[in-house]
């Protein structure tokens, strides 16, 4: 039984709903902290209870005002560090700047590495995140990084809502092939992927389907959906290739710009996302969006981390 002794869970302003789900699941109260912004835009943090010799967890995600969320985490980590916290863990369901993970052109920054440096310099001892855009980001850290997967929750959703004989798992690009094949293999279903050629960073010029989806329910799987241009274009191609229905299942539903409009006007039956980012507003605006709760996974990883238990079991199972 989880007693909550010696543990403090704080949240920034980016996703307090997820923090509430996690603390409710663990049966502890959210630790008290005041996070405010001054007139000039500076972030002020005041930890209003003792954290001396406590195991501290700080939850914030890379959404909305990403720079504000990142500074909140760094300042909260620093505040807890100099208040003699025993260990400080940053829980970042969506890692900020995860897509800037390599030097892809001349003079381009590797901002994901800079974020890792900021977190470590602030005094972070441990990082927990989910479905990193690129696994090499773990190597940017000199402290332990637990990368969780939404895959078990996605598989549970598919098993519950679909007849496995009717479905085909599809990757919208070659980069996501490993994720899609892993899900397809564990479900024992067919797999297909798209090869795409880009004009610009977020503009797709041509997509070629590799695999058969005729008379199947096609489920597109990806780590994040931003403007949803690729997903909607892939859904259109799948429909033209003879798929009976098309769904999309994504870990991080960023849904910026015209994303909701694109989803509404697309042939997608549903866009299923997890709650690594706040989705209440998006669900209210678009009836095609459905949310999978991963709060129980994050709560269980906190419990296991606090008691020094293995976290790898959560890579294959959804905790009950």
TrEMBL record:
It catalyses: D-ribose 5-phosphate + ATP = 5-phospho-alpha-D-ribose 1-diphosphate + AMP + H(+). CDD domains: PRTases_typeI. GO terms for cellular component: cytoplasm; ribose phosphate diphosphokinase complex. InterPro entries: PRib_PP_synth_CS, Pribosyltran_N, PRTase-like, PRTase_dom, Rib-P_diPkinase. GO terms for biological process: 5-phosphoribose 1-diphosphate biosynthetic process; purine nucleotide biosynthetic process; ribonucleoside monophosphate biosynthetic process. It is an enzyme of class 2 (transferase). It comes from the Eukaryota. Keywords: ATP-binding, Cytoplasm, Kinase, Magnesium, Metal-binding, Nucleotide biosynthesis, Nucleotide-binding, Transferase. Its EC number is 2.7.6.1. Its cofactor is Mg(2+). Pathway: Metabolic intermediate biosynthesis; 5-phospho-alpha-D-ribose 1-diphosphate biosynthesis; 5-phospho-alpha-D-ribose 1-diphosphate from D-ribose 5-phosphate (route I): step 1/1. It holds the Pfam family Pribosyltran_N. Residues 7-123 form the Ribose-phosphate pyrophosphokinase N-terminal domain. GO terms for molecular function: ATP binding; kinase activity; magnesium ion binding; ribose phosphate diphosphokinase activity. Belongs to the ribose-phosphate pyrophosphokinase family. This is ribose-phosphate diphosphokinase.
